[in-house]
Write a structure and sequence with these properties.
mainly alpha
Length: 508
């Protein structure tokens, strides 16, 4: 079930109303049944996969709490193998098989095994990692084993964050599921506001950016530098609004019921270094890999070479977690290299910033740091979005082609427009954009207005708790603003396009 669907528009208020009407002792059953229904709206039979791993982890958790020593490690290993094995089979078998077949063909060896006709269960990577968090934390002694099977199942299946996170730790969620949450007007309305803002980012901005990105990235060889650069920038906006929009909806829908999920994004494009970017982007995943992969590998406690190796391994695994394709591996590897370089450059950069001479140019240095970070992130996005390695290499090698023609055309059209007055100038600008995209003027105008509004709100949120401050304004202003936001979402979302666009991270 998609958050941006009419199905969810009925599902959410019905489930939420029943949640507050039922006595507390029955609520876990309602939420578990609702979460199963939510997941089964995609491919019903795949719910069995989740319950297999839940059952394994349930008994593993009890066993881990009751044993010590070598046996305890074997129980943890069994849980890891069950979870990772399921993920590996559905997500990576065909990828591995294709590469083995390619190598066999290279050495003229007849490789008989063909790919399997299997579909990746939606959100498998997310709930696999959430299940692993439970058994690992029980093993480490940071979480008591959950004796109630239903609550453990609900921890894994909780519908707001079931298919695209955030990837929660049991210490944050399990106790909240056990607690009784009463209806609180301010908490409920704040949750609904988060949902509305997330829906705006998804259906008004992300889906509109997709209209520009998809035609170019689906056929990159038919375009030159300006189109490829603008499409890459548009994708950077699209994936942020798509994924953070989902996270906002998940956060808000859980908050309505009194359950607080972790914030998964903290304005990542305001980061002034790659390391800071990863402290702001997909926080639940980056901290998961930090705590369960990077630190166990040795983290930054070893020498420089080992730190680089640990970072590369962690980010390569992160890339492959996103998708069974070499494009994702390269995307992860690039970020590993960027973070490794930043690890050694950042201390020297800080010392430079703190010097008396450099303090005079702090704003310029901040701008340089921000722009260089965004530039590196956008470059890596090419490999994330490209369908194949050949497409990615074509895009990266043609980013600077065709700019002379585009710039000369831009100046010609704008100069002609200036002679015709203000609206002629605007028409010239739109004509320049039309030369690299098939979008209509109305689509371009809507996109520009929406992006300006997004940037305004992002800046406000970055500077403090914008929602809390906005709640202090006059009721009439607040009600008109939220009503207008809902109208925009309905008018420019599914009702406008006629299509319910899936969230990008559903494929992972």
């Amino acid at each position: 079930m998609l958050f941006n669907s009419f199905h969810f528009l009925i599902f959410f208020p019905v489930v939420t109303t029943l949640y507050f009407l039922l006595p507390h002792r029955f609520r876990w059953g309602l939420l578990l049944a609702a979460s199963c229904y939510f997941y089964m709206a995609f491919i019903p039979k795949y719910i069995l996969i989740l319950f297999i791993t839940i059952t394994v982890d349930y008994f593993a958790g009890i066993g881990l709490e009751a044993t010590q020593g070598r046996k305890k490690k074997w129980i943890l290993l069994a849980s890891i193998l069950a979870n990772v094995g399921m993920l590996g089979f559905f997500k990576y078998f065909n990828f591995a098989n294709e590469n083995i077949a390619a190598f066999a063909n290279f050495i003229d060896w007849n490789y008989p095994i063909e790919n399997l006709s299997i579909i990746l269960p939606i959100g498998l990577s997310f709930h696999t990692f959430q299940s692993l968090s439970y058994t690992i934390e029980v093993y480490r002694g940071h979480q008591k084993a959950e004796r109630h099977y239903g609550y453990l199942a609900l921890y894994v299946l909780f519908y707001p964050q079931l298919v695209a996170g955030p990837i929660e730790r049991p210490q944050n969620i399990l106790h909240q599921l056990h607690e009784e949450h009463r209806f609180e007007y301010q908490r409920v309305t704040d949750g609904l506001k988060w949902m509305a803002w997330g829906m705006f980012k998804k259906v008004v901005i992300a889906d509109r950016m997709a209209l520009f990105v998809n035609p170019i990235y689906d056929s990159p060889t038919g375009h030159d530098g300006p189109a490829l650069v603008f499409a890459t920038l548009a994708f950077a906006i699209q994936i942020y609004c798509d994924f953070s929009g989902y996270s906002d909806i998940a956060f808000g829908s859980a908050q309505v019921m009194g359950i607080r999920l972790m914030k998964n994004f903290q304005h990542p494009y305001f980061a002034k270094s790659i390391s800071e970017f990863w402290r702001r982007w997909h926080i639940s995943l980056s901290t998961w890999f930090r705590d369960y992969v990077y630190i166990p590998l040795g983290g930054n406690r070893a020498g420089a070479r080992r730190v680089i190796l640990n970072l590369l391994i962690t980010f390569l695994l992160s890339g492959l977690w996103h998708g069974a394709n070499w494009t994702f591996a390269i995307w992860g590897g690039l970020h590993g290299l960027f973070v490794a370089l930043n690890h050694f450059i950042e201390p020297r950069w800080i010392r430079l910033r703190e010097s008396g001479f450099a303090k005079r140019f702090s704003p310029a240095l901040d701008a340089l740091s921000l722009l260089s970070t965004v530039g590196l992130v956008c470059f890596a996005w090419i490999f994330f979005r490209a369908s194949t390695l050949s497409d990615a290499f074509y895009i990266t090698t043609h980013l600077f082609s065709g700019w002379t023609t585009f710039v000369s055309q831009f100046f010609r059209l704008t100069q002609e427009g200036i002679r015709a007055g203000f609206w002629g100038f605007v028409s010239g600008l739109f004509a320049s954009l039309n030369s690299i995209t098939e979008l209509t003027r109305s689509e371009i105008a809507l996109s520009v207005i929406a992006l300006i509004f997004l940037l305004y709100i992002e800046i406000k949120q970055h500077r403090g708790d914008f929602l809390a401050r906005f709640n202090l304004k006059q009721p009439a202003i607040r009600h008109v603003s939220y009503s207008l936001l809902i109208v925009i979402i309905l008018a420019l979302g599914t009702l406008y396009t006629g299509v319910e666009q899936a969230f990008i991270y559903f494929q992972f």
